[in-house]
Amino acid sequence: MSPLRILVVDDEPGIRQALGQLLEYEGYEVRTAAGGTDGLAEYEKFKPQLVFLDVKMAGLDGLEVLKRLRQLDPRAMVVMISGHATIQTAVEATQLGAYDILEKPLDTDRVLVLLRNALEQRTLTEENERLRQTVESRYEIVGRTYAVRALLERIEKVAGTPARVLITGENGTGKELVARALHRGSTRARKPFIEVNCAAIPSELIESELFGHMKGSFTGAIADRAGKFEQADHGTLFLDEIGDMSLAAQAKVLRVLQDGVVTRIGGNKPIQVDVRVLAATNKDVEEEIAVGRFREDLYYRLNVVPIAVPPLRERREDVEMLVAHFLQQLAARDGFPVRNITDDALRRLTELDWPGNVRELRNTVERLVILANGPTINEADIERLVGRRAVEPAALGGLADCDTFEDFKNAAERAFLLTKLRAYDWNVSETARGLDMPRSNLYKKIERYGLTRESTPA
Fold first, then answer.
1. Domain boundaries, the chain
2. Per residue in 402-435, is it b (16+ CB within 10 Å) or e — as a string?
3. Topology agreement, domain 146-310 and domain 396-449
4. Scanning 35, 122, 174, 342, which has its CA 20 to 30 A from the CA of 369?
């Protein structure tokens, strides 16, 4: 393990020599600079974990150097040294981002204690940053197809606003990833992100979960408990699978959205909350409204901005990138080298049907990493561990019912073009480019088959 790097910037040779010897004796790698300009240049080359910086120097003084260091590297950890520190100097140094300030003559014990504390804090900060990056990688939306680019563009437009969003899509498409991306891009990013899976909580407990309860309000309520709305105050509340929420709970959620106030079960004190609500469902909400299982007024409150997450079958070109992402993610999680995968194996994975969407693909990649023979995943591993998955006639969307081969060809072309147009969000130019087809030809086929945005496959 390489020693930690420390830079000493001071125009007094005695200070540079004494402090440098002390730090080297303690096992640190030390470099020194006799002035501010040299110190800035040395910082860029040396990349130290900590800087000791004199306040009063000829030329650039220490406070100006500190300012420039923090512009160069916002995480720079700097300890100021002063022969006659004043409260004003200390305040100014702190405002500019200094970790601490030491007075001359330097006390060895004080230097070493401060050094240990500063480096421990830096290590903790770096570890938190690594953990944050690991978490964000876990919730990253991966893909380069038009469908994913359109999704990311909409997320970027909506994230910074206070608008409520209703995220729709099949199971396993990544609706939670969209919710987390919206939170990360919002002004609430440093506040809580609270998730509630409405399908996983029994209907008799959902109200307690959302709004909290007071001790003794029902059997088992042994203490006061804040609900998810309170926990998400000033942050984001993600109501996943909201289509499974009871009508009684829907009514209370509607009131919170209208008034910004919750009341715990068994309580009588209204609690003001400032929460951005994101909701998701795999159901057709308009159909649920029609049969009386979802409140229309709540739907309009939640559906300020709709975001539809495309299924994996509409973005097959992303399978290769997703597999590479999951291989890296699993290797980082388990501490193993990244597994290789052959082109033939990738081709087979791209060809397969994925009814469970991205979640199913990730689970499959994990299975391959664990059970594949040898260091490289090959096509034989796919056949053995995943299977061929023959397409059932019903999956042909009625094509098997065509009377003649000509009818079959026309129906297949119609279904194919409709699927591609949906994948490109009905952008005809992008669809034609993706199909390597002249745009005029695509327009003719759209007219020939009577394709419209509301069409359903033949």
1. 5-134, 146-310, 313-385, 396-449
2. beeeeeeeebeebbebbebbbbbbeeeebbbeeb
3. no
4. 174
Cα 174–Cα 145–Cα 173 angle in degrees, nearest 5: 15
Q: What predicted TM-score, i.e. pTM, was given to this entire model?
A: 0.62
* Residue matched to tokens 């001071």: 10
* 174-209 burial code (b ≥16 CB/10 A, e <16): bbbbbbbbbbebbebeebebbbbebeebeeeebbbb
CA dihedral 186, 188, 190, 195 (to 10 degrees): -100
Give, for 308, the enclosing helix (H) or strand (E): strand 305-308
d(CA 120, CA 126): 10
The structural architecture, per CATH, of the domain 396-449 is Orthogonal Bundle (1.10)
CATH number of 313-385: 1.10.8.60
The dihedrals phi and psi of 72, each to the nearest 5 degrees, come to -70, -40
Please give the chain's pLDDT, 458 residues, in tens. 568 899 999 999 999 999 999 999 989 999 999 999 999 999 999 999 999 999 988 888 899 999 999 888 888 899 999 887 677 888 888 888 898 888 888 889 989 999 888 888 887 777 766 655 544 445 588 998 888 999 999 999 999 999 999 999 999 999 999 999 999 999 999 999 999 999 888 888 899 999 999 999 888 888 999 999 999 999 999 999 999 999 999 999 999 999 999 999 999 999 999 999 999 999 999 999 999 999 999 999 999 999 999 999 989 999 999 999 999 989 888 888 889 999 999 999 998 889 899 999 999 999 999 999 888 999 999 988 987 554 444 344 456 567 788 878 888 888 888 888 877 778 888 888 888 888 888 988 888 888 876 543 44
Residue with tokens 């359903």: 456
Structural domain 146-310, CATH architecture: 3-Layer(aba) Sandwich (3.40)
Which superfamily does CATH assign the domain made up of 5-134 to? Response regulator (3.40.50.2300)
Count of CB atoms within 10 A of residue 103's CB? 14
